[in-house]
Amino acid sequence: TLTICVAYEQNGKVYCASDTRISCDDVCGRDKTEKIFEKGGIIYCLAGNLSTNQAIRYEFDYELPEHYDDINEVIYGDFRQKLKKFLKDNPEYLTKKGNFNDDLMIVVDNKIFVINTDFSITEPEFNYYCIGCGSDEGFAALYALNQVKGISTKTKIRIAIETAGEFERGCNKTVNQFNY
Question: Half-sphere exposure (CA, 13 Å, Cβ side) for 180?
């Protein structure tokens, strides 16, 4: 997955950003395609193939219920099942073993959820999470930056993406920042 997406929770608000690297089949480049988008009350952060991004963005129909008591029940239950069915019905987005082929995290009610390759859903241990081939570099940068006082959340995210762009050839340093 050629890219990096970052979600960072600070003071009850989640900030999301990505680089501008895209991949589609054997082509890599820079594009204006948003890897982070809001749809149906959910913020999607997708690192991976452009066709998967477009399928989830334009074909996957899921709306959060108007009323719910526990967002975890909604995400771990109904959302997970509908996403899994959508992807299983479109096997071009899966590996030969039937696993999800890209990296996806979502933000709902200022909570970060990570959709894993086996369709399980987890929540980050820390107040931030990175997906994509630059995630190791992003995690390292955010860990180090969290040890330093006085750095804004936006600056931390920018440095994490720039670090990934410097050390991971599948990323670039151009930041697309989305605040939700």
Answer: 25
